[in-house]
Amino acid sequence: MAAARKTFDARLSELETIIRKMEEGQLSLEEMLKLYEQGMKLHQSLSQELDTAEKRMLELTGSGLAEMENAP
User: Fold this and answer.
1) Which run of H or E residues covers position 24?
2) How far apart are CA 62 and CA 10, in angstroms?
3) What is the pLDDT of residues 15-71, one digit of tens each?
4) Is 55 strand, coil or helix?
5) d(CA 9, CA 45)
6) Taking the mean position of all CA atoms in its chain, how far away is CA 69?
7) DSSP secondary-structure letter at 6?
């Protein structure tokens, strides 16, 4: 992947645009399937990034609590 990865917010915005287009109901079946596939890929990458962030926050919180409990 030569191009820089889009930010979380940019990908979320792109997913929201896809959803709006699909909800309008003005697309052919082929266009709908193409957008659905793009949307699912975006959803997967966004979910993975959120999961990673959540795990990191839990690690930080767990570490912070352990350090505070052991402090004099």
Assistant:
1) helix 8-24
2) 30
3) 999 999 999 999 999 999 999 999 999 999 999 999 999 888 888 887 655 555 565
4) helix
5) 12
6) 34
7) P
